[in-house]
Amino acid sequence: xxxxxHYTGCGLDYVYLLNGYTLHETAHGQGVSxxxxxQLHERIALDIIGRPHSLRGQEVRFLRSMLHLSxxxxxxxxxxxxxxxxxxxxxxxxxxxxxxxxxxxxxxALKVGGHEVARKLVELIQEIDELEHRLHTLRNMQLKKxxxxxxxxx
Length: 154
Hints:
By secondary structure, this protein is an alpha+beta fold. Helices cover 52% and strands 14% of the residues. The protein has one domain (5-139). It contains 6 helices and 6 strands, in the order E-E-E-E-H-H-H-H-H-H-E-E. Helix 2 (57-66) crosses helix 4 (82-90), helix 3 crosses helix 6 and helix 5 crosses helix 6 (116-139).
């Protein structure tokens, strides 16, 4: 397809915008401004979960980002290993397993539909991810030369 703007900024290789965007020159080359990108991404996500085609790695990454989850967080929801989610996302055109496909579609639909349990689950997993990130940061050794090399608190 050559009509419209090929919008790869969402991470999907098949989205073309017919309007709702403005091209402009920047110091780094041509740039684009998307009108109401949040609403656009929500529309794309709903289209993805409603399609009869199997989800592929690029759709998994897109839906995960729309849910504001880490790979670990999505893996928890889908009862998978983080490595599985990472492998799916690393192969953007490869189909994911059917059970994970169905679970991700249903969970996304529940979350955007305002289902309380889905909302609370995402919030809890985001909190766990943040705590794990802080713990990882605390375990890292940070040194500062002032005037001797001293360990600093995170």
